[in-house]
Amino acid sequence: MTQSERNDRQRLRPAPLLFEPSEAVADPEHFFDLESMDDPRELLARATELTQAFRAATDRSVEFQAMAAAHLADPRRFDRLTAADVAERAEWTEDYAKKMIEFGRSLLDASSTA
């Protein structure tokens, strides 16, 4: 994903993800109050907002994972981790950890030049 695409995605502000009250989370049928909506137009609109918000949250979380992996594997750190160590901590394969470390480095490099 290019910096321009990230900027465009950040400008699109999806519905905020709010944590549900613990009583609602305890009910397996409850999901952001969608089950109580009777109007299909309203249901589609809200479900679409949530889908966009979850996608944006996932993308941002992956970027933070990558940056953290890059920091942990930084060869300048005396306590640096190997890609295998990062993979074990994040429950990834070692190949995926290597890719995430590189992705994280590219994000950190981009942010330091911005």
Secondary-structure content class = mainly alpha
Q: What profile does the largest beta sheet have? A: none
The helix fraction, in percent, is: 55-70%
Tell me the fraction of residues in β-strands, as a range.
under 5%
Through-space gap between termini: 16 Å
What ranges have pLDDT less than 50 throughout 5 or more consecutive residues?
Answer: none
- Total count of helical runs of at least 4 residues: 5
Give a count of the beta strands, DSSP E runs of length 2 or more: 0
User: Judging from the principal axes of the Cα atoms, what is the shape?
Assistant: elongated
Describe, in plain words, how this protein is organized in 3D.
The protein is built from five helices and no strands. With 114 residues, it is mainly α. The relative contact order is 0.11. α4 (83-90) packs across α5. It has helices at residues 3-11, 22-26, 40-72, 83-90, 94-113.
Architecture blueprint of SSEs:
Elements lengths: L2 H9 L10 H5 L13 H33 L10 H8 L3 H20 L1
Helix pairs in contact: 3-5, 4-5
Features:
single chain, mainly alpha, 0% strand, 66% helix, 114 residues, 5 helices
Summarize the structure.
With 114 residues, this protein is mainly alpha-helical.
